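Look over this today:
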Amino acid sequence: MIPNLERRYLETDSEYTREEIEQYMVEKKCEQCQGKRLRPEALAVTVAEKSIDKIVEMPISKTQEFFKKLKLKPHELKIAQPIIKEIINRLQFLVDVGLDYLTLDRKADTLAGGEEQRIRLATQIGSKLTGVLYILDEPSIGLHARDQGRLIETLKKLKDLGNTVVVVEHDPQTIRASDWVVDVGPRAGKHGGQITFQGTPKEILRSRTLTGEYLSGRKKVEIERTKHSASAKVAASKQNYLTIKGAKEHNLKNIDAKIPLGQFVCITGVSGSGKSSLMNDILARALLKKFYNAKEEPGEHEAILGWEHLNKVVLVDQSPIGRTPRSNPATYTGAFSYIRDLFTKTKEARIRGYQPGRFSFNVKGGRCEACEGQGVKKIEMYFLPDVYIQCSECKGKRFNKETLSIEYKGKNIAEALEMTVEEALEFFKNIPGLYEKLKTLNEVGLSYVQLGQPAPSLSGGEAQRVKLATELSRKATGKSLYILDEPTTGLHFDDIKKLIQVLRGLVDKGNTVLVIEHNLDVVKNADYVIDLGPEGGEKGGEIVVEGSPREIAKNKKSYTGQYLRQMIRK
């Protein structure tokens, strides 16, 4: 049985089959090397009484310190000096982009998108090239406001070397630090695509563009609290808590974290302070195991108390909604089932005896067999990522001619999938179930996304918002816990406002929303904040302060408090 499953897992091209088999798999530390990856002979070699595994498991800041203080004999130094110099320089580049809390043996698939991008950026700084055009897409992802300054300095160093740095960014600190701003809009999707402003950061503050309105403070991301939220404060005496006791995973220092239920709670702290370890590795995994028998083992902790006050847990992370072009927002949210039913009920489809499966690109019969309903063909490249090219048979339509001849209100199934969420809302406004699913996609700021947009082309933030919309379209129990990891990724100030309104709506129904976030607009709109730190890596993992945003702002030890104080003052 096991060899058969292993063979199928390695040979299959089907994402569904792979996920099915993964249910019976679990990752474990290698018993032979205990996760060190090397043979005893290699581990026996030491420098200053440290083997290579001990050096790579230290945070980058400590590794750098180790090599700076390394004392060697004169003849050893002659050999080692150029090597040590290179090591210290390369580690400094990682420190400069705010990654001093990472360890060198950290697995690539556990890095956040922003961390990956900053590692590539550190590599470029080290090359000291000139006359290069660097294009960065949201390098601030996952960065605390304190660390943002260090990243900006790094980008300025690249510029001073004689390079051009173009950054796609929503972060106000980065926009203000730039030399030139190009604002695209005025809105998203078909309402965008125009240059609404070009000029200096000072000039955009005086402009009437949406970005200028928020940057200058004429518009603010502030959400009106409803009566329900106000009454929740009065009923604080009956407040139930979800408590994580004795959290010790990674750099957490045996802490107890109390999360008030029925509120909008924000987990903050500088990069590497232990937010993801506490929320994702311990809390989310423990609750998913308890409620849904999930296979991933939670991180090291003593107990989770108060979970009996919940009846549903939803983790909305930034992992892709699928790894192949067959996955898209329409299939993931369930909207595609309604669309297929509509086409099945048309007069022409009934005459031909077509069933819903005819309009599925996962089933033989209606799909284009040349590309098996993907619309693209995968070209496997040696030493490079796979490349997808448009199918020459169906021209990316995914279906065969017979299926495409069936129309609903003048559109065939491929044209329906090419519509943006905003266009589909108008087109399907008389179909109640479908309209609700599309409405939630629109509410989370995805009005510009096509219904059939392939999953690999969605960013982490977009994938996360598709998941959030899917959960919002289901009936909330009033006792649900929603855990979100940086949901503002890729969002403009105006979209952040919409997102907070959506999350606040969940809280008003009695649910708990728990958000890991650096965005100060989100933090100041929370009911309760838990700030971890004070630093990243080994100097983090403690609760610096907890309470309302105003209480955090008053705390002088909290970096989040320092930046929040400026926001609240405005």
Summary: Residues 230-236 have pLDDT under 50 and may be disordered. The chain has 25 helices and 17 strands.
